[in-house]
Amino acid sequence: MKKSIFRIALLTLLAISLIYACAPTVEATPTSLASAYLSIEYSDAANVRSQLAYGMLKLVDVTPEQARTLIPLWQAVISLSGDTTTASEELTAVQDQITAAMTESQLQAIAGMQITNAGLNEFYAQYGVSLPTPVPGVTKVPGSGSGKT
User: Fold this and answer.
1) Which of 141, 114, 118 is nearest to 51 (CA)?
2) What is the dihedral of CA 100, 104, 108, 110, to 10 degrees?
């Protein structure tokens, strides 16, 4: 009798474990650290990564120490973006490192800028950056051919 109850309990526990393991998970946190500060919920909003990049250029309070940390991270973003085998989670992880290297007031300042795609296009035109129209089936390295670093 005791073995029978033990087996039933064990099978029940195993069944519950399997059901729990197969259940969909609910994310309690945003997909990236930056999305906790930056929104894409306004008209013509640029994507979060573009907001971070352009916003950092506009900030006046980036310290030399931050720049030493941030430059290699942005180089990693460029490198990973040009690789077709890069998982989106890898880019998000680097973006999170960039966000963590910034102060809350800097992130709030970037959020307050409400950067739009139209604003980015004006910036690109002002500095002569041309982004090629993607050709289906061909992967281009971001920024290639622009002559800008």
Assistant:
1) 114
2) -40
Look up the pTM and report it.
Answer: 0.66
Q: Which residue has the tokens 């085998």?
A: 85
**Side chain identity at 51, as an amino acid letter?**
Q
Q: Over the stretch 15-32, which tens digit does the pLDDT of each residue have?
A: 343 344 333 443 433 468
Residues 46 and 119: beta-carbon distance below 8 Å: yes
- C-alpha to C-alpha distance for 149 and 141, rounded to whole angstroms: 13
At 118, phi and psi to the nearest 5?
Answer: -65, -40
49-54 long-range Cβ contacts below 8 angstroms, 24+ apart:
49/77, 49/91, 49/95, 50/115, 50/117, 50/120, 51/110, 51/111, 51/113, 51/115, 52/95, 52/98, 52/99, 52/110, 54/113, 54/115, 54/119, 54/120, 54/123
